[in-house]
Protein backbone atom coordinates (compact mmCIF):
# COMPACT_ATOMS: atom_id res chain seq x y z
CA UNK A 1 0.00 0.00 0.00
CA UNK A 2 1.39 3.40 -0.98
CA UNK A 3 0.12 6.44 0.90
CA UNK A 4 0.68 9.65 -1.07
CA UNK A 5 3.15 11.88 0.85
CA UNK A 6 0.63 14.73 1.18
CA UNK A 7 -1.89 12.33 2.71
CA UNK A 8 0.69 10.69 4.98
CA UNK A 9 1.83 14.07 6.29
CA UNK A 10 -1.73 15.19 6.98
CA UNK A 11 -2.53 11.97 8.83
CA UNK A 12 0.63 12.16 10.93
CA UNK A 13 -0.17 15.76 11.90
CA UNK A 14 -3.84 14.90 12.64
CA UNK A 15 -5.01 17.20 9.88
CA UNK A 16 -8.27 16.36 8.06
CA UNK A 17 -8.22 13.80 5.22
CA UNK A 18 -11.17 12.59 3.13
CA UNK A 19 -11.06 9.29 1.24
CA UNK A 20 -12.71 9.18 -2.21
CA UNK A 21 -13.66 6.11 -4.25
CA UNK A 22 -12.60 5.46 -7.83
CA UNK A 23 -15.32 3.16 -9.24
CA UNK A 24 -17.50 6.21 -9.55
CA UNK A 25 -14.80 7.65 -11.85
CA UNK A 26 -14.15 4.52 -13.94
CA UNK A 27 -17.62 2.97 -14.07
CA UNK A 28 -20.10 5.51 -12.69
CA UNK A 29 -19.41 8.55 -14.86
CA UNK A 30 -19.03 8.76 -18.65
CA UNK A 31 -15.69 9.40 -20.35
CA UNK A 32 -14.16 11.86 -21.02
CA UNK A 33 -16.04 14.04 -18.46
CA UNK A 34 -15.10 11.65 -15.66
CA UNK A 35 -11.50 12.90 -15.28
CA UNK A 36 -12.53 16.55 -14.99
CA UNK A 37 -15.23 15.59 -12.47
CA UNK A 38 -12.76 13.53 -10.42
CA UNK A 39 -10.58 16.64 -10.13
CA UNK A 40 -13.61 18.75 -9.23
CA UNK A 41 -14.42 16.37 -6.37
CA UNK A 42 -10.84 16.58 -5.06
CA UNK A 43 -10.95 20.39 -5.35
CA UNK A 44 -14.17 20.51 -3.30
CA UNK A 45 -12.39 18.64 -0.48
CA UNK A 46 -9.44 21.05 -0.64
CA UNK A 47 -11.69 24.11 -0.62
CA UNK A 48 -13.08 22.94 2.71
CA UNK A 49 -9.57 22.63 4.13
CA UNK A 50 -9.03 18.87 3.94
CA UNK A 51 -6.67 16.67 1.91
CA UNK A 52 -8.34 14.38 -0.66
CA UNK A 53 -7.21 10.75 -0.85
CA UNK A 54 -8.66 9.08 -3.92
CA UNK A 55 -8.08 5.33 -3.63
CA UNK A 56 -7.34 2.84 -6.44
CA UNK A 57 -5.03 0.00 -7.45
CA UNK A 58 -2.40 1.17 -9.95
CA UNK A 59 0.08 -1.30 -11.46
CA UNK A 60 -0.72 -3.69 -8.64
CA UNK A 61 -0.19 -1.19 -5.88
CA UNK A 62 -2.99 -0.01 -3.58
CA UNK A 63 -2.68 3.76 -3.65
CA UNK A 64 -4.10 6.08 -0.99
CA UNK A 65 -4.12 9.43 -2.77
CA UNK A 66 -3.47 9.63 -6.52
CA UNK A 67 -1.24 11.96 -8.49
CA UNK A 68 -2.56 13.39 -11.75
CA UNK A 69 -1.12 10.57 -13.84
CA UNK A 70 -2.72 7.85 -11.70
CA UNK A 71 -6.06 9.66 -11.70
CA UNK A 72 -5.95 9.80 -15.53
CA UNK A 73 -5.21 6.05 -15.70
CA UNK A 74 -8.15 5.21 -13.48
CA UNK A 75 -10.37 7.46 -15.61
CA UNK A 76 -9.26 5.48 -18.67
CA UNK A 77 -7.91 8.69 -20.21
CA UNK A 78 -4.54 7.23 -21.17
CA UNK A 79 -5.92 4.40 -23.29
CA UNK A 80 -3.60 1.99 -21.48
CA UNK A 81 -5.96 -0.97 -21.09
CA UNK A 82 -9.08 -1.66 -19.11
CA UNK A 83 -9.76 -0.68 -15.53
CA UNK A 84 -11.36 -3.37 -13.37
CA UNK A 85 -14.13 -2.70 -10.87
CA UNK A 86 -12.56 -3.99 -7.67
CA UNK A 87 -14.45 -4.96 -4.54
CA UNK A 88 -12.78 -6.19 -1.33
CA UNK A 89 -12.42 -9.76 -2.55
CA UNK A 90 -10.78 -8.62 -5.80
CA UNK A 91 -8.16 -6.32 -4.27
CA UNK A 92 -5.54 -9.00 -3.67
CA UNK A 93 -6.03 -10.58 -7.10
CA UNK A 94 -5.61 -7.32 -9.01
CA UNK A 95 -2.66 -6.38 -6.80
CA UNK A 96 -0.90 -9.71 -7.35
CA UNK A 97 -1.39 -9.46 -11.11
CA UNK A 98 -0.06 -5.92 -11.26
CA UNK A 99 -3.35 -4.64 -12.67
CA UNK A 100 -5.23 -1.37 -12.57
CA UNK A 101 -8.44 -1.37 -10.55
CA UNK A 102 -11.03 1.12 -9.43
CA UNK A 103 -12.22 0.57 -5.88
CA UNK A 104 -15.90 0.40 -4.88
CA UNK A 105 -17.31 1.81 -1.66
CA UNK A 106 -16.47 -1.51 0.01
CA UNK A 107 -12.81 -1.72 -1.03
CA UNK A 108 -12.26 2.04 -0.66
CA UNK A 109 -13.64 1.89 2.89
CA UNK A 110 -11.41 -1.09 3.66
CA UNK A 111 -8.24 0.57 2.37
CA UNK A 112 -9.12 3.95 3.91
CA UNK A 113 -9.54 2.38 7.34
CA UNK A 114 -6.26 0.53 6.91
CA UNK A 115 -4.55 3.85 6.19
CA UNK A 116 -6.18 5.45 9.26
CA UNK A 117 -8.66 7.65 7.36
CA UNK A 118 -11.95 7.94 9.23
CA UNK A 119 -14.10 9.92 6.74
CA UNK A 120 -15.02 8.95 3.17
CA UNK A 121 -17.21 10.66 0.56
CA UNK A 122 -19.04 9.09 -2.37
CA UNK A 123 -22.22 9.47 -4.41
CA UNK A 124 -24.38 6.49 -3.59
CA UNK A 125 -23.89 3.44 -1.44
CA UNK A 126 -24.43 0.00 -2.95
CA UNK A 127 -27.21 -2.08 -1.42
CA UNK A 128 -29.79 -4.80 -1.85
CA UNK A 129 -30.94 -5.20 -5.45
CA UNK A 130 -34.66 -5.36 -6.18
CA UNK A 131 -34.61 -8.94 -7.39
CA UNK A 132 -32.40 -10.06 -4.47
CA UNK A 133 -34.91 -12.67 -3.35
CA UNK A 134 -34.03 -14.61 -6.50
CA UNK A 135 -30.50 -13.45 -7.29
CA UNK A 136 -29.09 -12.87 -3.77
CA UNK A 137 -27.51 -9.72 -5.23
CA UNK A 138 -26.53 -7.57 -2.29
CA UNK A 139 -23.54 -5.23 -2.52
CA UNK A 140 -20.48 -6.12 -0.44
CA UNK A 141 -20.60 -2.42 0.55
CA UNK A 142 -23.04 -3.40 3.31
CA UNK A 143 -21.15 -6.30 4.91
CA UNK A 144 -17.87 -4.42 4.62
CA UNK A 145 -19.31 -1.45 6.50
CA UNK A 146 -20.38 -3.82 9.26
CA UNK A 147 -16.72 -4.27 10.17
CA UNK A 148 -14.93 -1.17 8.92
CA UNK A 149 -14.31 1.98 10.95
CA UNK A 150 -15.35 4.54 8.40
CA UNK A 151 -17.97 7.24 8.00
CA UNK A 152 -19.45 7.17 4.49
CA UNK A 153 -20.99 10.44 3.34
CA UNK A 154 -23.45 9.65 0.53
CA UNK A 155 -26.75 10.76 -0.99
CA UNK A 156 -28.45 7.54 0.06
CA UNK A 157 -28.77 4.65 -2.36
CA UNK A 158 -30.14 4.71 -5.87
CA UNK A 159 -33.74 3.85 -6.55
CA UNK A 160 -32.42 1.07 -8.81
CA UNK A 161 -32.06 -0.79 -5.49
CA UNK A 162 -34.54 -2.02 -2.90
CA UNK A 163 -34.16 0.90 -0.49
CA UNK A 164 -36.27 -0.56 2.33
CA UNK A 165 -34.37 -3.85 2.29
CA UNK A 166 -31.05 -1.99 2.24
CA UNK A 167 -32.02 -0.01 5.36
CA UNK A 168 -33.06 -3.22 7.12
CA UNK A 169 -29.72 -4.84 6.28
CA UNK A 170 -27.81 -1.81 7.58
CA UNK A 171 -29.69 -2.17 10.86
CA UNK A 172 -28.87 -5.88 11.12
CA UNK A 173 -25.23 -5.16 10.33
CA UNK A 174 -24.90 -2.52 13.09
CA UNK A 175 -24.26 0.27 10.62
CA UNK A 176 -25.72 3.53 11.90
CA UNK A 177 -27.52 5.92 9.56
CA UNK A 178 -27.61 9.67 10.22
CA UNK A 179 -29.70 12.07 8.13
CA UNK A 180 -28.00 15.37 7.45
CA UNK A 181 -30.65 17.99 8.24
CA UNK A 182 -33.35 15.45 7.39
CA UNK A 183 -35.26 12.54 8.89
CA UNK A 184 -35.90 11.04 5.46
CA UNK A 185 -33.46 8.68 3.78
CA UNK A 186 -32.42 10.38 0.51
CA UNK A 187 -32.96 8.69 -2.86
CA UNK A 188 -29.78 9.79 -4.68
CA UNK A 189 -31.30 11.73 -7.64
CA UNK A 190 -34.24 12.63 -5.40
CA UNK A 191 -34.19 14.19 -1.94
CA UNK A 192 -36.53 11.67 -0.39
CA UNK A 193 -36.60 7.91 -1.03
CA UNK A 194 -39.88 7.60 0.85
CA UNK A 195 -38.19 5.88 3.82
CA UNK A 196 -37.67 7.43 7.27
CA UNK A 197 -34.43 7.25 9.26
CA UNK A 198 -34.07 7.44 12.99
CA UNK A 199 -31.42 10.08 13.55
CA UNK A 200 -31.05 13.62 12.27
CA UNK A 201 -27.86 15.66 12.68
CA UNK A 202 -27.62 19.34 11.81
CA UNK A 203 -23.93 20.29 11.79
CA UNK A 204 -20.57 18.74 10.85
CA UNK A 205 -19.56 19.16 14.50
CA UNK A 206 -22.50 16.96 15.56
CA UNK A 207 -21.32 14.24 13.20
CA UNK A 208 -17.72 14.49 14.44
CA UNK A 209 -19.03 14.12 18.00
CA UNK A 210 -20.73 10.85 17.03
CA UNK A 211 -17.44 9.57 15.54
CA UNK A 212 -15.58 10.43 18.74
CA UNK A 213 -18.26 8.73 20.85
CA UNK A 214 -17.99 5.65 18.63
CA UNK A 215 -14.23 5.62 19.21
CA UNK A 216 -14.76 5.87 22.97
CA UNK A 217 -17.50 3.28 23.23
CA UNK A 218 -15.95 0.60 21.05
CA UNK A 219 -18.58 0.77 18.32
CA UNK A 220 -16.09 2.54 16.04
CA UNK A 221 -15.33 -0.75 14.32
CA UNK A 222 -18.70 -0.46 12.64
CA UNK A 223 -19.26 1.85 9.73
CA UNK A 224 -21.57 4.83 9.86
CA UNK A 225 -23.57 6.37 7.01
CA UNK A 226 -24.15 10.11 6.79
CA UNK A 227 -27.01 10.53 4.34
CA UNK A 228 -26.89 13.94 2.67
CA UNK A 229 -29.82 14.71 0.35
CA UNK A 230 -29.14 16.31 -3.02
CA UNK A 231 -29.89 20.07 -3.00
CA UNK A 232 -33.46 20.90 -4.02
CA UNK A 233 -32.21 22.91 -7.01
CA UNK A 234 -30.23 19.92 -8.32
CA UNK A 235 -32.90 17.25 -7.86
CA UNK A 236 -34.08 15.25 -10.90
CA UNK A 237 -37.67 15.70 -12.05
CA UNK A 238 -39.64 12.92 -10.35
CA UNK A 239 -41.63 11.86 -13.42
CA UNK A 240 -38.50 11.71 -15.56
CA UNK A 241 -36.84 9.71 -12.79
CA UNK A 242 -39.66 7.17 -12.47
CA UNK A 243 -39.98 6.70 -16.22
CA UNK A 244 -36.24 6.20 -16.68
CA UNK A 245 -36.01 3.81 -13.76
CA UNK A 246 -38.75 1.54 -15.08
CA UNK A 247 -37.29 1.54 -18.58
CA UNK A 248 -33.77 0.89 -17.24
CA UNK A 249 -34.82 -2.05 -15.08
CA UNK A 250 -36.64 -3.59 -18.04
CA UNK A 251 -33.63 -3.02 -20.33
CA UNK A 252 -31.25 -4.62 -17.83
CA UNK A 253 -33.47 -7.66 -17.59
CA UNK A 254 -33.90 -7.94 -21.35
CA UNK A 255 -30.13 -7.69 -21.86
CA UNK A 256 -29.49 -10.34 -19.19
CA UNK A 257 -27.17 -8.04 -17.25
CA UNK A 258 -25.95 -9.66 -14.02
CA UNK A 259 -23.72 -9.27 -11.00
CA UNK A 260 -21.30 -6.40 -10.82
CA UNK A 261 -22.34 -5.11 -14.26
CA UNK A 262 -25.85 -4.20 -13.08
CA UNK A 263 -24.99 -0.91 -11.34
CA UNK A 264 -22.80 0.48 -14.19
CA UNK A 265 -25.41 -0.57 -16.78
CA UNK A 266 -28.24 1.28 -15.05
CA UNK A 267 -26.10 4.37 -14.37
CA UNK A 268 -25.18 4.56 -18.05
CA UNK A 269 -28.82 4.06 -19.03
CA UNK A 270 -29.88 6.97 -16.82
CA UNK A 271 -27.19 9.29 -18.18
CA UNK A 272 -28.13 8.50 -21.78
CA UNK A 273 -31.91 8.53 -21.43
CA UNK A 274 -32.09 11.75 -19.41
CA UNK A 275 -29.76 13.51 -21.88
CA UNK A 276 -27.30 14.39 -19.16
CA UNK A 277 -29.79 15.55 -16.50
CA UNK A 278 -28.93 12.59 -14.26
CA UNK A 279 -25.22 13.24 -14.82
CA UNK A 280 -25.57 16.87 -13.71
CA UNK A 281 -27.45 15.72 -10.60
CA UNK A 282 -24.84 13.04 -9.94
CA UNK A 283 -21.96 15.53 -10.11
CA UNK A 284 -23.76 18.06 -7.92
CA UNK A 285 -24.46 15.55 -5.17
CA UNK A 286 -20.96 14.05 -5.15
CA UNK A 287 -19.36 17.48 -4.88
CA UNK A 288 -21.75 18.39 -2.05
CA UNK A 289 -20.88 15.15 -0.25
CA UNK A 290 -17.15 15.83 -0.66
CA UNK A 291 -17.59 19.27 0.92
CA UNK A 292 -19.63 17.94 3.82
CA UNK A 293 -17.15 15.11 4.41
CA UNK A 294 -14.29 17.63 4.51
CA UNK A 295 -16.14 19.73 7.07
CA UNK A 296 -16.80 16.66 9.24
CA UNK A 297 -13.16 15.52 8.90
CA UNK A 298 -12.02 18.99 9.99
CA UNK A 299 -14.12 18.89 13.15
CA UNK A 300 -13.04 15.32 13.85
CA UNK A 301 -9.36 16.23 13.44
CA UNK A 302 -9.79 19.30 15.67
CA UNK A 303 -11.23 17.11 18.43
CA UNK A 304 -8.07 15.01 18.58
CA UNK A 305 -6.37 15.11 21.98
N1 LIG B 1 -23.92 3.85 -6.74
C1 LIG B 1 -23.81 4.95 -7.51
N2 LIG B 1 -22.71 5.14 -8.28
C2 LIG B 1 -21.70 4.22 -8.30
C3 LIG B 1 -21.81 3.08 -7.46
C4 LIG B 1 -22.93 2.93 -6.71
O1 LIG B 1 -24.70 5.77 -7.51
O2 LIG B 1 -20.73 4.43 -9.03
C5 LIG B 1 -20.66 2.11 -7.39
C6 LIG B 1 -19.94 2.26 -6.06
O3 LIG B 1 -18.56 2.08 -6.27
C7 LIG B 1 -20.49 1.12 -5.23
C8 LIG B 1 -20.68 0.06 -6.30
O4 LIG B 1 -19.64 0.70 -4.21
O5 LIG B 1 -21.17 0.78 -7.42
C9 LIG B 1 -21.63 -1.03 -5.89
O6 LIG B 1 -21.59 -2.01 -6.86
P1 LIG B 1 -22.19 -3.46 -6.53
O7 LIG B 1 -23.66 -3.27 -6.44
O8 LIG B 1 -21.77 -4.30 -7.71
O9 LIG B 1 -21.57 -3.89 -5.23
MN1 LIG C 1 -23.83 -7.07 -6.77
UniProtKB/TrEMBL annotation:
One of its GO terms (molecular function) is pseudouridylate synthase activity. Signal peptide: none annotated. Homotrimer. Belongs to the pseudouridine-5'-phosphate glycosidase family. The lineage of its organism: Bacteria, Bacillati, Actinomycetota, Actinomycetes, Jatrophihabitantales. Binds 1 Mn(2+) ion per subunit. It catalyses: D-ribose 5-phosphate + uracil = psi-UMP + H2O. GO terms for biological process: nucleobase catabolic process. It comes from Jatrophihabitans endophyticus. Substrate binds at residues 85, 105, 139-141. Catalyzes the reversible cleavage of pseudouridine 5'-phosphate (PsiMP) to ribose 5-phosphate and uracil. Functions biologically in the cleavage direction, as part of a pseudouridine degradation pathway. The active site is at 21 (proton donor), 158 (nucleophile). The gene is psuG. One of its GO terms (cellular component) is cytoplasm. This is Pseudouridine-5'-phosphate glycosidase. Its cofactor is Mn(2+). Keywords: Glycosidase, Hydrolase, Lyase, Manganese, Metal-binding. Mn(2+) binds at residue 137. Its EC number is 4.2.1.70.
Amino acid sequence: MLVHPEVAEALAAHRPVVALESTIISHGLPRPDNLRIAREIEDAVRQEGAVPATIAIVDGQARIGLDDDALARVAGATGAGEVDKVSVRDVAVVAARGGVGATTVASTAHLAARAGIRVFATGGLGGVHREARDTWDESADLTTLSRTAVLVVCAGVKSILDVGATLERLETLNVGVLGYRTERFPGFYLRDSGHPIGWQVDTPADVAAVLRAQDDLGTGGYGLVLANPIAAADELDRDLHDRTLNAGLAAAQAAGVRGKDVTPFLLEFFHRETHGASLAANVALVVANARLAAAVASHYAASHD
